[in-house]
């Protein structure tokens, strides 16, 4: 059975300001097949865009019962699933530890219904990592990358090689670019009105 890797990112230009534009990006990958998705909207938040990226990636899947690895630079998204925050939220009628309503709960509920159709593992990635140039066929190496690799392993376990880490980092940079594309499209749409 093949594994589907999903890489996601979301962002918001002007987050928490009265007028802002958000974007999200996702890449679905299995074997040699890759599909890129992106979009954007006005008047949103970083967290909403991070959630939307994962939701849209899952909505693009054609069948249930798949084995999926999700790589996200959003601690908000990754930790919810890794630490099972949603179990407490559901048990407490969608109240958080401070007894306040969980933010973005309509998105969380949609995402949970999609995730529960599959065998999914979430992994956390450091976002906005600039990879240094490397000679063809060689991996980029630096002290800061070695430290980030150790952090990646501390978050996700020892099952990833340095080469895996570099690949996941490259993919995170791609989805960051797609989220940026979504922001630009949302701005253009708003200006056209």
Description:
The chain has 193 residues and is an alpha/beta fold. It has a single domain, classed as Nucleotidyltransferase, domain 5, CATH 3.30.420.10. It has six helices and five strands. Strands 3-2-1-4-5 form a five-stranded mixed beta sheet. The chain is globular, with a radius of gyration of 17 Å. The relative contact order is 0.21.
Descriptive terms for the model:
193 residues, alpha/beta, Nucleotidyltransferase, domain 5, five-stranded mixed beta sheet, 6 helices, 44% helix, 22% strand
Secondary-structure blueprint:
Layout: E1 3-13, E2 21-30, E3 33-42, H1 46-59, E4 67-72, H2 75-82, H3 85-91, H4 105-115, E5 119-124, H5 143-156, H6 162-192
Parallel strand pairs: 1-4, 4-5
Antiparallel strand pairs: 1-2, 2-3
Helix pairs in contact: 1-4
User: Which architecture name does CATH use?
Assistant: 2-Layer Sandwich
User: Strand-and-helix sequence, N→C?
Assistant: EEEHEHHHEHH
Mean pLDDT: 93
> How many whole angstroms does the radius of gyration measure?
17 Å
Number of helices: 6
Helix % is 40-55%
Sheet having the most strands: 5 strands, mixed
Q: Strands of the biggest beta sheet: in what spatial order? A: 3-2-1-4-5
CATH class: Alpha Beta
Share in β-strands: 15-25%
Shape: globular
CATH superfamily: Ribonuclease H-like superfamily/Ribonuclease H
> What is the CATH topology assignment?
Nucleotidyltransferase, domain 5
Which structural category fits the helices and strands?
Answer: alpha/beta
Number of spatially distinct domains: 1
Q: How many angstroms separate the termini?
A: 47 Å
**SS elements, strand count:** 5
* Sequence stretches where pLDDT stays below 50 over 5 or more residues: none
